[in-house]
Amino acid sequence: MFCYQCEQTSRTDTGAGCASARGACGKDATTSDLQDLFIHELKGMAEYARRLRDLGQGDNEAARFMLYGLFTTLTNVNFNPARFTQMLQQANGHRERLKGAYEAACAAQGVAAETLGGPATYVPAANLQQLLCDAPIASIQAGLDAVGEDVVGLRALILYGLKGVAAYAYHALMLGQESDEVFAGVEQKLDLLASEPSDVGALLGAALETGSLNLKVMELLDAGNTGNYGTPAPTRVRVTPVAGKAILISGHDMVDLAHLLEATKDQGINVYTHGEMLPAHSYPELKKYPHLVGNYGGAWQDQQSEFAAFPGPIVMTSNCIIEPQPSYRQRIFTAGPVGWPGVRHIENHDYSAVVAAAKALPGFDADAEAQEITIGFGRDAVLGVADTVIDAVKGGAIKHFFLVGGCDGAASGRDYYTDFVTQTPKDTVILTLGCAKYRFNKLDHGDIGGIPRLLDMGQCNDSYSAIKVAAALAEAFNCELNELPLSLVISWFEQKAAAVLLTLLALGVRNIRLGPTLPAFITPPVLEKLVEAFHIQPITTAEADLAAILGDQAA
Amino acid sequence: MSSRDAGAKHRVSLTTRDGQQVGFDCAEGESLLDAAARAGLHLPAQCRSGSCGACRGRCTSGEIELGEHTEQALSAADQARGETLLCSSFPRSDVAISVEQDLAVIQAPGPVERSGEVVVVEPMGGGVMRLLLKLGPAPDGSTGADFIPGQFCELTLPDGAATRAYSIANTPNWDGLLEFWVRLQPNGKFSTWLQGAQAGEQLKVKGPSGGFTLDESSYAPRWFVAGGTGLAPIAAMLRWMGEMSAMQPARLWFGLNREADLFAQAELEALQGGLFAGLEVNVCLWQPSTAWSGCRGTPLAGLRPALAQALVDANPPTLYVCGPAALVEAVVALAAELGLDPGQVVSERFLPG
User: Fold this and answer.
1) Domain containing A519: what range?
2) Which of A276, A371, B39, B251 sits CB 3.0–4.6 Å from B280 for a disulfide?
3) A116 with A94: CB under 8 angstroms?
4) With an 8 Å Cβ cutoff, are B47 and A12 in contact?
5) Is the CB of A330 inside 8 Å of chain B's CB atoms?
6) Which residue segment(s) compose the domain that B34 sits in?
7) In this predicted complex, what is the ipTM?
């Protein structure tokens, strides 16, 4: 295996990347190789799909499969090789259908059908041994000797960004939102990767286009979430358990939560959100269920301890699953794109097994001491008090805004984000989103004239809300986005964050501070170009970065 | 790694966040993480190779050799504070470590005693009875049947006159149901009770126990060898593989003495249709009638050429063997003779009873 798609990938003196029997995330070599082959097949599908769509005959069934397929290969999503051997065959079926349709469309329109090569001709072997023998052709490092690390890294940047795009687009799809433009964009980028592009400038351009595509996707997802569940509003959320039977649901997929809440209605079972599901409490159509009682635990990397201590079943709806421990292996369920060998999978939103498990498991025997946090500062909530905010800025009560968010992780360097937020001056406001917030969202940060200093905007994809707020503020202050008293301090871990980062760059956002380390696939020469164009920079220490940001502002 | 003497053992004292102390032995060549797992203490871990930082602990006394790890997972400053990565920590003396988890969180579930109400007792052919029990609540209030396929329980008769260990033949479930396949023994205490057992009678059930379980981390083909009711835990494993859509192709050699001993034929047929990667069933009779068209002899007769071929094909299976001691020993010896890695033989002998 070789994989360097996430932030925690192994880094040694000799280079970066996980290349042993098991990656830093727990993904084993077999699963990793099968994922590579599966991506290779998706590229082959896209070769035909893109051309077929160009002829006016988009195949959205194939496109939906591509979104789902790409999503399964994100970090900590699906480590079940059985699912990949199945999907390899399914992808082959889709590609054959696309090929047939493409050739028929060409014949009907009197144009010559291209003879496609590369991934478009790959046929997956029937057995695991042979599949693994084929894996090198599909490695993310394929062609390294010919094109060098910069090009391989840029191809990786596009692919990983595209995985994030696909994950968000799949969430939107589950909420009833899809777009031919998005399908076309995904197909076009996969088709580009299938052609083994090697022009650094063109690759950088394609990476930024992937970011623009992601903005469209986050808009769709936002429409899906707010269209189905209403506009998020500031909400107090209990973060300690109450007595009674309990189900914990993690991940990003609100549709799964909505189905679970219906399935558990009037059954005497309490539902708790975990990780990125926290923002659900701020949506009117979800918080209306009285048995959605609170949020449990911290960010994803603490799950092995927290799930073991949870006295009920656990549902993982998207990322991020870690190897389930023996003490809770029988009571954790996967849903949607998620999978783990030896763990039960929920099909078609049928939560009956989870309900049965909740009834059979003890639940919490007593109320814990009550503790609450406030969430739900989506763009409508923030812009609803825009006048107050603008006055506070003009009057000097608010000196600066920080957007501190993204993904959390286990690396010790991530303490930076706690230090950073706790050291921000009292006349500054912190916007946050993603699961990085768990590093500081249970601390008391105070308020400025009634406006909480910490405003939780939601999931990582609610970056869309943050972008809207920033754009509105820029308009109000009659300035450019980069001239706002706003600094972005981003914590990245996996490919959704890569997509969001590309979106911010595509919008021309400068001076982003990124940590805890920079992506391993971005080589120094490519980084130099990004620094030149966007002045992107690695985090240093909370003290130094705060001094630099606020010093710059003073100057 | 070569300098490590896998044989020299040290005592590890582990303190949990809630102040509980547990001890276990760890060889110099074994990581503290692996040794803890052997002792039933499952600490958080992801990569098991020193690069993710999930298995962080603190060494409070003693000497540890830290193996390969990345600076990102454990910085020099972390080390200076006594922090270590348990997956890459190898003891060089008795050591004391502390972790940030409560004991209850890292301990694997152990056997507990519950009541078991008879739901069904019925013959399933060959002098074997199916006994279906519904468990009463566990001490923590849970009512499901939570175990790992392949494990067993100890059943005590209502009058306390006999306790026998039987493997569970069904899969974990939330209805609290446990299925056992019991061969009737002439004049056996349990057998005598079983023949007159009525629905509603209450047994004592202690479990689950046992380490005869599937290696979920291996994608090698899974080959099963069962002797008599040694089929029960293997049936649980195969049923689980069906529920999980497991990808490993499965083969079974099922040994009995003669046609009259045949049982669970319907169950095997159902399994053959239910496994994602297929199941080949070979029923082997030691003393069949002339009419028998299946395998003759012990399961070894069929297993030997198949295993030899798999080794030639460089596609060695994991062998799961359960049955009388003689059968298990013969399979283990055959595997050793043909050169199968001993780590790929998982076995359980019938307990004397």
Assistant:
1) 379-554
2) B251
3) no
4) no
5) yes
6) 9-106
7) 0.84
